[in-house]
Design a protein that fits this description.
37% of the residues lie in helices and 31% in strands. It has 6 helices and 7 strands; from the N terminus they run H-H-H-H-E-E-H-E-E-E-E-H-E. The protein folds into 2 domains: 33 residues, no CATH class; 123 residues, Nuclear Transport Factor 2, Chain: A (Roll), CATH 3.10.450.50.
Length: 160
């Protein structure tokens, strides 16, 4: 590794030691790590997908926590609070039948792959969304607006 980096072995070991020490500082305490809720998380995911697919904003309101956060890396847009998140989503929730969502998981969290219907009627891959579910509601949505992410999850670019 030292040769690849153009430095000494001692410098590499020192950097690794500092990195490990920093990870120890910021790592969550094991007692605070909560495993996903399984069936409960899946029920929230199913309701979330149905709300989008049926363009049911009222159902979406019921699922989102007051302090819900929405981010779309690498975009800089970031929304916090039910009101701001819903304002953003309102413009993007299509009429019923305009979206199709398929469930998956990402890093142990409930997730979905979203397809949007184009003017030609074809459902094309749109995004992967990862939900953070807390107490039966959505606390955070991380949406990856990259078709390549959909493919990496093993889903097709187009649904027939």
């Amino acid at each position: 590794m030292a040769a690849l980096l153009g430095t000494s072995t001692a410098a590499v070991k020192s950097t690794l030691q500092r990195a490990r020490a920093r990870l120890d500082e910021v790592a969550p305490e094991e007692d605070l790590v909560v495993e996903p809720g399984g069936a409960a998380d899946r029920e929230v995911l199913d309701r979330y997908m149905a709300a989008f697919e049926h363009a049911d904003l009222d159902a979406l309101v019921d699922l989102l926590q007051d302090g819900v956060e929405l981010e779309m890396p690498p975009n800089l847009e970031w929304f916090r609070g039910r009101k701001d998140v819903l304002r953003f989503l309102h413009a993007r929730v299509h009429e019923e039948g305009g979206l199709r969502m398929l469930p998956t998981r990402a890093n142990g969290q409930p997730a979905l792959v979203m397809y949007a219907r184009g003017v030609d009627g074809v459902l094309r891959a749109h995004s992967v969304q990862v939900l953070t579910v807390v107490d039966g509601t959505v606390a955070r949505v991380t949406a990856f607006l990259d078709v390549e992410q959909v493919v990496r999850f093993g889903f097709p670019r187009v649904l027939s």
